[in-house]
Task: structure prediction
Amino acid sequence: MNFSTIIPFAVFTLTLLLIYWRPRGLHEAIPALLGAVIVFLSGSVSISDIGQITTNVSEAAITIIATMVMALTMESIGFFRWIALKLLNIAKDSGIKLFWLTNLLCFLMTLFLNNDGSILITTPVLILILKRIALTNKQKLPYLISGALIATASSVPIGVSNIVNLISLKVIGMNLFQYTQMIFVPGTLGLAVLLILLRFVFRKEIPKRIAYFPQSVAYSQLSPLHPIDDEFTKNTKWMGFVLTFVFTTRMLLFVASYFGVSVSLVSVTSALILLSWRWYFLKINPKDIVKKVPWHIFVFAFSMYVIVYGLHRSGLTELFVKLTEPIVQHSIFHATIVIGLLNALMSNIFNNHPALMIGTLAITQMDVSELTLKTIYLANIVGSDIGSLLLPTGTLATLIWFHLIKNSNIKLTWGKYLSVTFKVIPATLIATLLLFYLWVEVFFH
Result:
């Protein structure tokens, strides 16, 4: 192994350490960018490779950023406060009903937005809901932990809910419609398995009956980003319009994908319409959203892809192919289970972003049929989006979630998190992979 080969591995390891450690609050995009620059200067990645990476990353990043603009706009008009109040009204005094409703919220937020955005939005909403209720710290954890796991795992059924899913789609050559056609049903059933397991694990902690604090105190806590008049926030007509608009635009993404129209173009257009609507009706300048948009997503995704591409050029994917191709070629069943479990393992060691990128680049080098290629790619997704939840370091979304929980003075240790995930994630992962294999066998083989 020569010097140019060692550099990408050393940079990759150091970058991950800095992302996890985050000394002095260091943003994850900074070590990723520095690592990418070093890999490029070492010659491991060429100018033509950078061009290919830009092609693969740009549309996915634009789509996710446009989605975040929509999410921030919805939050600024009090949409999520409205949702929180609706959930409380429907649940009434039932802690069990609230458990199902909050997890449904997390599922839908990821489905209509994306997993990182869902964590950033639903976690504060859940915390505010729980402040309205007289619960002990132990009784709050079922809602928070299950919400985080469901929100993150819900990026499996729809590729647009996760930036890495979108990037890898481009590499494989699948469109969003094909992705959803193959994985939506088994992926959603897998989430149902996860939710049932969580309900069982938390059967003693979830209160059957809940008591509320005075309405005036709790309602004032459920405040949006802007001091919008309460009458507007309570206006079901306006909020219903926003909900219908978002649902319609998400459906248009799949229509666009089916007809070969740019998904990023539809996403940007939808975000601009919603932002313009807020500006016209509420007289709020879009500058606040521009400042809050996580522009670093593009930098982080692009930089990590450069580093992973350096590993690819250094022979890592070749080794991956050499070890797994004989198993993959044996049968679709073996391919689905082995690749899914292997990517889950890599995701917990490396983080799911680079793990999925490595796995995707590797399977494109395999001599397999088109159906097998798509199947193992989607098994990669299942391993990356569900299997990665075993450890808190498996996804950036989980790390963000832990940070939000800590800032809210809610006690949650890694030990408690692991005591839940080790009971539910392995079983959910295997169940989802089996459901996916059966779905492919029945409808696509």
